[in-house]
Amino acid sequence: MTRETHEGGAAPAFEAIGLTRSYDLEGVSVDALRGVDLRIDQGEFVAILGPSGSGKSTLMHLLGCLDRPTSGVLRVGGVDVATLDDTRLAELRNETIGFVFQSFHLLARTPALDNVALPLVYRGVARSERRARAQKALEAVGLGHRLGHRPSQMSGGEQQRVAIARALVGDPKVVLADEPTGNLDTRNGDEVMALLEGLNADSGVAVVLVTHEPDVAARAHRQIHVRDGLIERDTRTRTAPAAASEGDGK
Ligand SMILES: Nc1ncnc2c1ncn2[C@@H]1O[C@H](COP(=O)(O)OP(=O)(O)O)[C@@H](O)[C@H]1O
Ligand SMILES: [Mg+2]
């Protein structure tokens, strides 16, 4: 689904121009995003920071095609989401993006293997292949010995690793993680970050994560600070991948 740009390079993972999202709360409009311009290239590792209520989750939902902008342009892998109906938007999401949430969002009484295989069900992958790929994804996060365990029998750190395996099982181009270490102790948070770092370095998967923790943000290569629905600051602490180094990072 990714399109090539006219220069022939890979399209950016995300391009937002004047992106807004307003929520209607009993007749009162809340402007969660007020005009965001942003470009994130393939293979980047980005942290999004900002006070509670500043619009971080709203932005992640838009980037992840879980929601649509109120106005502005959003291109995901070069595709303008406004040109897609809901079915095609869901397909783009399923093929391009893996999600990791603070509260894991796993089916508590369903074995880890089936939780991880779930995104492949929506893709119409045959059962035996689903199971093989889910097993491989669980092995990749160090949970090859926990295939039949249910999330309700697992520690928080293990549950988040199951969620990462589920995000990876479809070979996404991007992993979006909304406070992935927010409910974890230091050691488990560290393991989750090591997995995301390895994924970015070894497979070139772009990682965009929201965090409140400065030491987590410092491990990303770029820090985007959001305030009152706008990007307040966008800094790079490490150079972007070679294939995606042109431009000013916006
Ligand atoms: N589904 C919703 N309905 C109404 N208002 C919402 C909804 N989601 C978020 N908001 C509001 O939008 C603003 C930004 O929220 P959010 O993106 O969740 O911020 P953050 O993730 O930075 O804490 C807040 O004022 C919040 O109350
Ligand atoms: Mg949030």
TrEMBL record:
GO terms for molecular function: ATP binding; ATP hydrolysis activity; transmembrane transporter activity. This is Macrolide ABC transporter ATP-binding protein. GO terms for cellular component: membrane protein complex; plasma membrane. Pfam families: ABC_tran. The keyword Magnesium does not apply. InterPro entries: AAA+_ATPase, ABC_transporter-like_ATP-bd, ABC_transporter-like_CS, ABC_transpr_LolD-like, MacB-like_ATP-bd, P-loop_NTPase. Residues 229-250 are annotated as: Disordered. The lineage of its organism: Bacteria, Bacillati, Actinomycetota, Actinomycetes, Streptosporangiales. Keywords: ATP-binding, Nucleotide-binding, Transport. SMART domains: AAA (SM00382). Residues 14-247 form the ABC transporter domain.
